[in-house]
Automatic annotation (TrEMBL):
Nucleus keyword on record: no
Originating organism: Streptosporangium canum
Transmembrane segments: 29-47, 101-120, 132-155, 188-217, 238-255, 310-329, 336-357, 369-388
The protein, known as: 4-amino-4-deoxy-L-arabinose transferase
UniProt key word Transmembrane: yes
Keyword annotations from UniProtKB, A to Z: Membrane, Transmembrane, Transmembrane helix
Amino acid sequence: MEATETERPESTALRVALPGWLAALRSPVLLGAVLFIAASLALRALILRDSYFVEDDLLFVGNAYENDLTLDFVTRVHKGHFMPGAIALTWVLSRIAPYDWLLVAGVTFVAQALLGVLVLRLLRTLFGTRPAILPPLTLFLFSPLTVPAFGWWAAAINAIPLQLALALALTDQVRFTRGEGARYGWRALAWCVAGMAFSTKGVFAAFLLYALTTAFLGDRETGWIRSMLGEVRRHWRLWSVHVMAIAAYTIVYLSRMGTAPGEGASVPKPGVAVDLVSRMLGRTFPSGAVGGPVTWTPTPTGGLADPSDLMVAASWAGLAAVVVVTVLYRRRALRAWIVLAGYLLFADAIPTVIARGSYTALVGAETRYVADAVLVLALCLGFALLPVKGETGAYRRPLPASSRLVAGLSAGAYLVLSVISIETYRATLSGDRVRAYLDTAAAQLAAAPDNVVIYPTPLPDDIVLPWNGERRLSNRLLAPLARPAVRVRMAHPEPSHEARAFDRNGRLVRMSVFGFFATPGKNERCIPVVNGAAVFPEAVSFGGPATAGALAYTAGRPVSVTVEVGEERIVLNLQETPLGLIHFPVRGVSRGIRIVMDDPAAPVCMTGVALGVPVAEGEQPSPP
């Protein structure tokens, strides 16, 4: 019998079609970019882990529970900032869950991740998918200058949306200049307006677009000045609307300045202004631009840049070398550095001087005031090194063979220095104090009965600074932690024999009054009552929510007395209690207090009268 060979069917290869975005990761450049983005986010996650609510963050939560989401509310100026979008965002997040750091940090983290992706897209749109876009991307992702604003919620709601708007506007502007459609120009305008809604620096977005368009994206061969004039002639409608949007924003801002009296724009002191700018542009920005400052001065909101003189000198030397080399080899590189210098001066330095230059130059060490310039720095570095798509004759002379090695070593050194700076900054963070205080206050409010009477007291100085005035009172900042019934009573405390106040650790304790205090004279058991009243002309009431009085007494039966402070009349119902003490709110502003016995024959003996500010028993008020 003959053996026969059976034929096997040909094997078929299994092919799986990957999604476009995943298939793109086959590109080493894109894969490297994604890994850089992921690594930067890992570092920033540690920053968020060690950060917590601080200072203005608490004010935003208090504002959210004191106001409805109205046009009047979102257009109020906050410490010189006109940012309706940011205020609306803080209102929504606060109303979803007050003082929920996980929620706030999650939103911040997602926004930062989106920003990294959008900046990568912008660099690819400008220069193509080439290895040379990784250094500018790395500079942006790992810059220590952006980290303090990222970890502080009140700064992040300005800085991150502004950078998102800039990245989106510039991407659409590039597509508009390449003739892909007029709609991209109008979309770029819309993103500029969106940036203004979150930060006053958004008004400079249009100027940045115009400068980069005329320097690199439009007619490059006719000269920069001619390119500027030609751009206005060709697209005068678009740029006119940009100007009108800026004008409208400015008019609304100026009309709403009265909502934040005494804050924001002011006439700077020359000495302070010079010192501020020299710190900001002479030390903080240059050291941060190369990966510094390495060392920080701890503050309640994190750290202030405190580079050593050696770090500053090395930074300037490195930056000068980059500028000189790029100008020597790259045509039009000087334009990029002029754009960066102009942005730093007009968008960062001058507005900061106008807003903060009347009281301290130390704000020049706060990196949040130049955080937005990091994106501009990364783009200008790209323009100074690389030709944009379609650009010919970009270089004056051939690049040396060692240029790639030098660029790689420089990027590596920057990465190492930046990681060190970010980690030393993280060492200055500690949200334990505020977290413990708010957790304690929340637990105390949850356990308090519905009829609890809590008088407003300022939060401790190491949580909210005294210069915030009445905005730092507990009836505003801690009320969001209370259930609605208690929240209302916190806003309107009433006379009480069991008044409570928050101590410096967030516990509800017995209340005391610090200020004027009167007791019976020598050899007297009771304060004298003449013609049915006791008068204390030396007592002073400053009024407002943080003024209260106290009356210590003994009474044989329930009786009422009327306390007169200026035009204000407060009726107190006295009764026998273990302490024989009643507290009462005082709103009127006046000198002198008069206590009238409604029944002169009643057996009442006043043993003490106080008028001043409410404080936790055993504590003293913080200085104003």
